[in-house]
Structure formats: structure tokens, C-alpha cells
Amino acid sequence: MKTIYLLNGPNLNLLGKREPEIYGAETLEDVAALAQGVCADGYEIVSLQSNHEGQLIDWIHDARERACGIVINPGAYTHTSIAILDALNAFEGPVMEVHISQVHKREPFRHHSYVSKRADGVIAGLGIEGYAAAVRRICQIA
Ligand code: DQA
């Protein structure tokens, strides 16, 4: 069985409750179920969320041994974290960056992503369907 790490960063534990006009009504549990549901045969999802940058980095390090690919929504760390970029650069498989909202239509500070310097694919503005597209892609290439 191949494992795909599905990593969500800060505030995404509040999905469904937090600014639903931007992020929708679905919860993080819905995201995990959607991701598992679109996995090809022989793939499984490990879904992890943290509000802490170091924890996300530790999980990216774990993924070096355990995962064939990473789907990551780094939340606001997208726009700030060179440390998460460095951790992803130490991972050899495909990395898909997902944003629920269309970050380029929003405030200018959301237009830059450190993670995009490493990501093999970037999806923004598809709502939680973006996670499904990212998982499908990893199943094709990893
Ligand atoms: C987000 C966009 C980020 O700018 C924001 O800080 C988030 C969520 C998204 O999924 O649209 O927390 O990554």
C-alpha cells in the first residue's frame, strides 16, 4: 500500500466553521473522506492537521520514509514559511499545494507562496475539490 500524506496547516481545523463564505461548509473530516474516496487502488491517505509550523515540518520529515507524495494546504504558512519550503525540498516525491480559496483574488499578501517554489502542482479556488484533484494527480505519478 502506498501512502499519501494530506497535511493541513493552521486554522484549517476550523474548516466548516471558519469564514464559511470563503472556505465553505465542509469540514476537515469531509476533506479526509473525499481524499480517501478518490485514491486509486493501492493508495491510502494519512490526514494530519496542525496549527504549529514545527509539527508540520516534523510530519514532512516523516513523509520522507513513509509517503509517496504530499498534498499540503499550509494555510497562512504558505506566505511566510521558508522552513516549510526547506522541509519540502528535502522530500523526493511529488508535492501538490492546495488552497481552498482563490488566493490570487484576495489580499496581496496571499499572492506570494514560498511552497510554490517546490510544489509540482498548485490548485487554488476549487474549494475542497482541489484536494481531490491533487490526490488523483499523485496517484497518477507516484
Ligand atoms: C488558504 C489560503 C491562505 O491564505 C489562508 O491563510 C488559509 C487558507 C486556503 O486554503 O485558501 O488559511 O490556504
Can you describe what's shown?
The structure is a single chain. By secondary structure, the protein is an alpha/beta fold. The protein has a single domain, classed as Dehydroquinase, class II (Rossmann fold), CATH 3.40.50.9100. The protein has helices spanning 20-23, 28-38, 53-66, 82-89, 129-141; strands spanning 2-8, 43-49, 69-73, 95-99, 121-124. The longest helix is centred in the middle third of the chain and has 14 residues, at 53-66. The radius of gyration is 14 Å and the shape is globular. The structure holds 1,3,4-trihydroxy-5-OXO-cyclohexanecarboxylic acid.
List the helices and strands and how they pair.
Elements: E1 2-8, H1 20-23, H2 28-38, E2 43-49, H3 53-66, E3 69-73, H4 82-89, E4 95-99, E5 121-124, H5 129-141
Parallel strand pairs: 1-2, 1-3, 3-4, 4-5
Helix pairs in contact: 2-5, 3-4
This protein binds 1,3,4-trihydroxy-5-OXO-cyclohexanecarboxylic acid (DQA).
1,3,4-trihydroxy-5-OXO-cyclohexanecarboxylic acid (DQA) binds at residues 11, 73, 75-76, 78, 99-101, 103, 110.
